[in-house]
Amino acid sequence: MASYHAFFLGGVVMLVSFFIPGGAAQAGWTSYSPLATTIPTDGQAFWLIGMVLLITSSLLGAVNFIATIIQLRAPGMTWMRLPFFVWAQFVTAFLLLLAFPPLEAAGILQLMDNLGTPAFSCRRAWRWAVIWRTAVAAAARSCGSTCSGSSAIRKCMS
């Protein structure tokens, strides 16, 4: 139930961000740090809080799936007799556990930068962009797509 509550709260926070003064997040779906930390609206902070809550929900759901598949198999059900769908859910849950913690850590660090507790100094903003790009790319690759943010990093470093 904790994953559902985190999901619901994250969705509400992201929905509320559309109605605050200044509007919702304006840094795009990747939310690269040089752009996302300089936008003067609170929409980016709301988006990051919602993102952290949604990632937490996904992590809790993945742990729930793994624990359920391991502990609640039918008596006599061996690992090789599990249906393909169960194997797919099991592998996907492990991929979530591998890909989402770095993305959540990057989101929390960017939220700290956005709320005035700098996790990184402005002189090292390009390093933050590389960390953010790596986290987004890792999450995108685990979902089967590709992600390239080299143009954002080139703009930040120049």
pLDDT averaged over residues: 80
Distance between the termini: 47 Å
Low-confidence stretches: 145-158
Largest sheet: none
Strand residue content? under 5%
Shape: elongated
What's the domain count?
1
> What is the share of helical residues?
55-70%
Helix- and strand-based class?
A: mainly alpha
In total, the number of strands is 0
Our Rg estimate from Cα atoms comes to: 18 Å
How do the helices and strands follow one another from N- to C-terminus? HHHHHH
Figure out the total of helices. 6
What multimeric state do the chains show? Answer: single chain
Name a few traits of the molecule.
mainly alpha, 158 residues, 6 helices, disordered C terminus
Structural description of this entry:
With 158 residues, this protein is mainly alpha-helical. It has one domain (2-157). Helices cover 66% and strands 0% of the residues. The chain contains 6 helices and no strands. It has helices at residues 2-16, 33-36, 43-71, 84-114, 125-142, 150-157. α1 packs antiparallel against α3, α3 (43-71) packs antiparallel against α4 (84-114) and α5 packs antiparallel against α6. The longest helix has 31 residues, at 84-114. The chain starts with a helix and ends with a helix.
